[in-house]
Amino acid sequence: MAAEPNPPKLHGDFESARRSSSSVDVIVHFTTSPNEKLHALVARFGGELLHELTLIDSAAYRIPAKKLAQLAARPEVSDIALDQIVSTTPSSMSAAVLVRGD
């Protein structure tokens, strides 16, 4: 059976998350800076605020995976991405050193 495509505003590998009853950590990018009204909106979908990321008009939440598509359909939401650990690779570190000239 082919994997169901993500709704347009969902970015990342949500396939296994959508089939489970668990919650996932996500970054919700809003059309404006996060505020109490937007936090309340996410809370109505079962979301729990973890961190505000106001510099990028976003906030990190833990939310039931089954509610993501409904939240993404809201006009206040630009997109939703899985909150994942980001790390550098040796090649990107080398490039950084070359740019700085060290």
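[next item in queue]
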Amino acid sequence: MAQTLTASKDTMVRGDDPNRSDFGGKDTMRVDDGAPKISYVEFPAPESTGNAKLRLYATGADRLPFDVHVVAAGWPANVTHGNRPALGAKVGSGTVVHIGWAG
């Protein structure tokens, strides 16, 4: 039976604005090819997970690749580029190819 999970928290860090920490709670997360950006999303862990599907909605038609990594729980309260959680194992990747839902 499919289960839809809503993110419990999110944030983003930017390499060109390393001390900024007010990205959490925005209605969009940038993953474009401008300044280096890393978006973080946390989901509540279900009882069991055989497979998981991350769906992204693209607002631009640029062909941009993305990777999905595991990150340890317990992020700092105000995540910045300097104190961001380390990226763990890569568990997926893809390329946004059109405006609309991907994944």
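[queue empty]
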